[in-house]
Amino acid sequence: MPSPTRKSSDSATLAPAESAPEISDADTLAAADSVVQPISEKDALGIAAKGDDEKTELQADSKEGELQALSEAAESTFNALGEDIDRVSSFVAQLTEEQSLEILRTAIEYHKDDINFASATMEKITKLAQGLEFYEGDYDTYSLELRTEAALIGHYSPYPEVRAVTDPFDDPTVYVETPRVYLLALIWTIIGAGIYQFFASRQPSIALNSAVIQLFLYPSGKLLAFVLPDYRFSLGGRTFALNPGPWSYKEQMLCTLMCNVAVNGAYVALYNIITEKMPQFYNNQWVTYGYQFLLIFSTQFLGFGFAGVLRRWVIYPTKAIWPTVLPTIALSRALLRPEKQESVHGWTISRYWFFLIATTGSFVWFWFPGYLFQALSTFNWMTWIAPSNFNLAVVTGSIFGLGYNPIGSFDVNLIIGSNTGLYPFSVPFWSALNQYSGSVISGLIILCLYFKNYKWTGYMPINDNALYTNTGDTFRVTEVLTNGLLDQEKYQNYSPPYYTASNLMVYGSFFALYPLAFVHTMLHEGKHIYNSLKTFALEVFKKDKRPIYEAYDDPHSRMMRNYREVPDWWFLIVLVVSLVLSIVCIKIYPTNTPVWALFVIILVNFVFLIPLTIIYSTTGFSFGLNVLCELIVGYALPGNGQALMILKAFGYNIDGQAESYISDQKMAHYSKLPPRAVFRGQLFTTLVQCLVSIGVVNWQIGNVEDFCSPTNAQRFTCPGPRTYYSASVMWGVIGPKRMFNGLYPILQWCFLIGALVPLPFYFLTRRYPRLRKVNPILICGGMLVWAPYNLTYYTPGIITSFCFMYVIKTRYIGWWEKYNYVLSSALTAGVAFSAVILFFAVQFHPKPLVWWGNLVPFVGVDGGIGRQALLDLPESGYFGLDPGHFP
User: Fold this and answer.
1) Minimal CA–CA distance to 362: which of 870, 717, 34, 835?
2) In the structure, what pLDDT confidence band is assigned to residue 653 with cuts at 50, 70 and 90?
3) Contact 140, 58 (CB under 8 A)
4) Is 60 exceeded by the pLDDT of residue 55?
5) Is residue 700 part of a domain?
6) Domain around 553
7) Is residue 815 included in any domain, yes or no?
8) What confidence tens digit (pLDDT) does each residue in 460-505 have?
């Protein structure tokens, strides 16, 4: 195969040339200011270890001797560096002490409030920055450690997580945006989006996420590189090659990003269309394909328009590490980057073979909790002691109860956090622990509410996302509507909707979370946000002609200067077109939704998007604006559940799509992919995803028996659409005025609580910096886990996070850097493969395996047999407010 030619700055020229110039290490260092391979803080601190055990004699008199000594020390200490040790050595040797001191002092100031920056590293570089007189050692050792730390921080990354999956150098000649990338992205977007949409209404859900897609893309790309002819063609003045050469790492990453943005699902298809069309919900038969197309296109693409502004806050800054994207990059490196045989804590297996073995193990194991021995998945062993004990089921039950169970499941699907967002192999342990602490605390509050029968919660199940009438039946909104709006006479003759104890906790936590997140982010990141806004304003008004990357001096941004950024007006065009489609949608169909309300929701998104994405980029914790939008629309358009559902779809999806695009753009930043190629590719696959999602959801509605029924044999119980429906009833049809004034007045105080909580935390962390990892946003976010999920879905994840993100990361950093993210992807891939095969083999047309191990989790109260509420109905036959006096 011919070698590739140098691309244009946006990587659109794809034809291979006859030859490409060799790029030497010296050229790379001079051109890109690059260092090399990832090494840990612990390893970096020990790179010039002084103990007798090292037996390394540093020759500071000559550069040659220094390089040799450094290589020898690194060879014994950092096996993960492999062939890039020489690059590290060369760059450390080129740094002067003055340059190194400047880098460290800048880092100390920038990272002083950085919760992801290791405290041990901060202590070390602070001592180094103070000079030799504060350092306990000789001059030669001090000088080498000073320059080593400066090289890692100033010319690579201060985070071992990032160094583990990135390179400190880039080859801009590697082809990226090839025709075969678009072909494979089209095929796997159709497959991935179809499977996601099909299983998204199932509990637990199944998806072909990026790890699984990558596994298929790799052999597919290799196959195309083998079979496609070396054919070139011209388009728009550029030459393209059908087969430019071997399947490259950058092609793999671009194709992954294109699929990734599309296979994460279409919010409208999953929630809005199902809720509006299904008879047990709104039963709106006017929801035609035309309405669905307009709504899904406008909601999916509006977020892209906002993403252009967000780049300044959550892509270029070094602090924005985006921990949830790192496993995806790690897997692509394992598949395509060669590595030499080496020993890391006694492990010599390559990342690729480790991935294959772990994937196979995960695939085989999932059959046990998924089909052969289902008690391993729903391991509610504490309720087996007394299956009819109501209180025991309430506290420890995995199905009916709250899941206070130290060993809740052996299901890998629960361990990897696919249904919870905890992601124990990528989210920092301190972040996971904060969230889990909030879950445990809120569960105790739920128990108090329930057993005190607060607001009649004792007459309903404790942990359910459904709404109930005053007789304990499921609330049906069609009983109180006339022409899609609330009918007061029907409402007074029927019942108000009542929340379960867990649902009450979830909404109270949401109301506190919004002001908490906003105030907390402004206190801690206000200066950074202000400076970025000022930079953006200068760019908009053409007072600053510099490219966006020029404002950032970290090594990754410097390398990305080889590629042209996406102009802001590209994002603006997408935003305007999407806005026009959304206006057409709500005007030509009977949506009962005014246009001005849409602009209000867009404004709310604009205000909150910056703090939300900053939180997501640093902690791995994400939450949407769905509940805030419910409240705003409920006040603005009382009694209008239809408008609430539509505006909520916009309010949530603008944020969701913007975060999805931005997180993938950060992956492109780490992988050195041209931003314009990523922009074009993701727009293309999002369009494909919209069409696939609409087709799948309409097929399900018409062909799956008992779809969205609690008794569905294939578990298509629609937990998400059911929550979506409940919210539209409570906050749209009934409205927040009735909720706050008559049913649940305590909820309105949650806003004030959320606004005040950040203040003491802020002053405490200023006084005691070690407390900065106690994050009130994450604690409050952990309180959202309930209804219908419980601690059974979270406890396995926090145990795994402790093992891998704390113990192994602290004690075996070399192993962790090499294998951790690969293991995360392997477990995810194995579960997805196994679940899809298992579903079509034995669950779609049920082939039950009847024995004790598959029956014991579902007997007794926790299995839905026997008493399902704490209290019996009063003699009057109803609970709550008296009929005729409903708020």
Assistant:
1) 835
2) confident
3) yes
4) no
5) no
6) 294-441+502-689+706-887
7) yes
8) 999 988 889 999 998 888 788 887 678 888 888 899 989 999 999 9
Percent of the chain having pLDDT more than 70?
A: 85
Give the pairing type, strands 238-241 and 232-235. antiparallel
Q: Residue 674 corresponds to which tokens in the numbers above?
A: 């041209």
d(CA 94, CA 92): 5
What value does the mean pLDDT take over residues 771-777? Answer: 86
Task: Give me the sign of the Cα torsion angle 131, 133, 139, 144.
Answer: negative
Q: Is residue 72 part of a domain?
A: yes
- Structurally, the chain folds into a number of domains equal to 2
Residue found under tokens 């299983």? 199
Polymer length in residues for the chain: 887
Sequence-separated (6 or more) residues with CB below 8 Å from residue 15: 5, 232, 239, 240, 241, 244
Do 302 and 159 lie in one domain? The reply is: no
The yes-or-no verdict on residue 367 having pLDDT over 90 is yes
Do residues 393 and 383 lie in contact, with contact meaning Cβ atoms separated by under 8 Å? yes
For residue 248, what is the DSSP state?
P
Q: Are residues 728 and 868 in the same domain?
A: yes
**Residue 489, Cβ neighbours under 10 Å: how many?**
9
Q: Are the CB atoms for 37 and 160 separated by under 8 Å?
A: no
Burial of 773 (0-12, 13-18, 19+ CB in 10 A): middle
Cα–Cα dist 661/265, whole Å: 13
User: Of 130, 163, 196, which closes a domain?
Assistant: 163
Distance CA 674, CA 668 (A): 7
Dump pLDDT digits (tens) for 273-320: 888 888 888 888 888 889 889 988 888 888 888 887 777 778 888 888
Structure-block tokens of residue 758: 């950040």
What's the Cα-to-Cα distance from 533 to each of 389, 468, 550, 757, rounded to whole Å? 58, 47, 16, 26
What angle in degrees, to the nearest 10, is found between the helix axes of 595-619 and 626-636? Answer: 160
* Integer Cα distance of 373 and 380 in angstroms: 13
Give the range with max mean pLDDT: 429-443, 695-709, 723-737, 858-872: 429-443
Q: What is the pTM of this model?
A: 0.76
Helix, strand, or coil here: 241? strand
Tell me which of 115, 148, 163 is where a domain ends: 163
- Letter string b/e over residues 858-875, b meaning 16 or more CB atoms within 10 A of that residue's CB: bbbbbbeeeeebbeeeee
Q: What share of the chain is helix, strand, coil (3-state, %, to 5)?
A: 65, 0, 35
Verify cis geometry, omega within 30 degrees of 0, for the bond prior to 16. no
How far apart CA 240 and CA 175 sit, in angstroms, is: 10
| CA-based nearest residue to 44, from 83, 73, 5, 15 | 73
| Residue 779 located in a structural domain | yes
How far, CA to CA in Å, does 541 sit from each of 530, 544, 793? 17, 8, 50
d(CA 735, CA 106) in angstroms, rounded, equals 52
pLDDT at 533: 65
H helix runs in 748-812, sequence order: 749-756, 758-767, 776-781, 795-801, 809-811
Q: What is the mean pLDDT of residues 517-525?
A: 84
Query: Distance between CA 549 and CA 563 in Å, rounded?
Result: 10
Number of helices (H) and strands (E) in the chain: give both, helices first.
36, 4
**Following CA atoms 446, 450, 455, 457 in sequence, which dihedral angle do they give, to the nearest 10 degrees?**
110
The single-letter DSSP state of residue 493 is H
3-state secondary structure at position 234:
strand
Buried-exposed string 786-804: b where 16+ CB fall within 10 A, e elsewhere = bbbbbbbbbbbbbbbbbeb
Rg, Å, the chain Cα set: 28
Give me the pLDDT at residue 269, please.
66
Range list of H helices, 208-350: 210-227, 249-263, 267, 273-277, 289-314, 326-336
* Per-residue model confidence (pLDDT) at position 531: 67
pLDDT in tens, 661-706: 888 888 898 999 999 999 999 899 989 988 988 898 888 888 878 8
